[in-house]
Request: fold
Amino acid sequence: MSLAFDLALCALILGAAGLAVAGRNLFGSVVFYIVYGVLIALAWVSLGAADVALAEAAIGAGVTGVLLIGAWQGMKDAGGLEAEITKSLPVRVLAGLGAAALGALIGFAVLSLPGHDGLTGPVAENQPALDLGNPVTAVLLSFRAYDTLLETLVLTAALAAVWSLTPARFWGGIPGPKHTTRPDGVMASFGRLLPPLGVLVAVYLVWAGADQPGGAFQAGTVLAAVWILIVLAGLRDEPRLSSLILRLIVIAGPLVFLGAGLAGALAGLALGYPEGHARTLILIIEYALTLSIAATLALLIAGPARRAP
Amino acid sequence: MNAMEWFIAGLLALGVFFYVAGTVGLLRFPDTHSRLHALTKADNLGLGFIAIAAGLHWGDGWIAGKLALVWLLTLFAAGMAAQLVARAALKAEGGE
Reply:
């Protein structure tokens, strides 16, 4: 029964991926990309990787989907969609060959991984030193903290890139259009009903993340969704991008992370934690990262400033 | 299969029936508003039956409670999305 489910899921994933790539209609491709993200999240659940499933559903399908729809709308407004020219045959063949070569490389890399247990053993051996129950958090914030630090910096750099598109006269202004909804309408009511629940879920995710599935990225995405919902419902406007508090929140996570890494370097091992304090430090980093990731994702979706401060 | 398992299977079949009905409606109904009607009403009823079946299958109060919460939130989200899509469709048709 489970095998039947997995096979059906694989077929659906391949189908959604094929339709996303081969679709003639750009909006249809975006929709199938989002469907693909949701199906991939189900596949991770089926593999027992709840952490990855949460991240994939929240970021892969959710945030990326919204960004892609925003990009599509922007292209439509700019008249860029009318010219959906089919590229010439050599270009398409070259693109196909490139994609096939990349796919083959990834397949080769996966197949050449030693054993099928991967790093489960070494992680389980060293995990007690950190006093964390969740092996994923142990890998992300200690054994491979370097990767996670760079990931958070990538998010910040992406936000800087988006902000750099601001026209000079709007610099430091308010992103996005002003949303107005009828005060007693469905959207406004929903915007008041859901945020408390969303905040509760986010706090739970980051709090549980130390010992169970969850963590900064998942909680941050939920908080970002709450932020976006409140703005869409017209209950609060986006903040001024020149706001010092806002900018401090955006860099708080990477800053705390870098600070911990630097302190470790002075004590002998970069990004290493002093014995007995690993759990405390990791939790502080996770909480700071949650706020920064939430603000960065919400601001990425809001885009560059479009109104004067 | 004992009586309980038959009952759960029946609930699942009922849920799937409503999903199929909703999908047929989505594909066959003539305009946006009717399609929304099929999608948000029939599908959510189907989800409700499947949630009840899953809750009975695990026979655990906590799991059943969480499933009920999931269903409730889906109802809220589907209802809101349907309202927004319907309003956007009305505007596109030149109404309002």
